[in-house]
Amino acid sequence: VWGLRQGAKDYVVKPIKEEELVKALQAHLPG
């Protein structure tokens, strides 16, 4: 919640799965 209030667009939970991280990055990066 704190991160979202600070302007975060998304979050991932630990343990981080690589495929979830890649999907989150692709959703927020142009191109």
TrEMBL record:
InterPro entries: CheY-like_superfamily, Sig_transdc_resp-reg_receiver
Residue stretches making up the Response regulatory domain: 1-29
One of the GO biological process terms: phosphorelay signal transduction system
Protein known as: Chemotaxis protein CheY
Species this chain originates from: Luteibacter yeojuensis
Lineage: Bacteria, Pseudomonadati, Pseudomonadota, Gammaproteobacteria, Lysobacterales
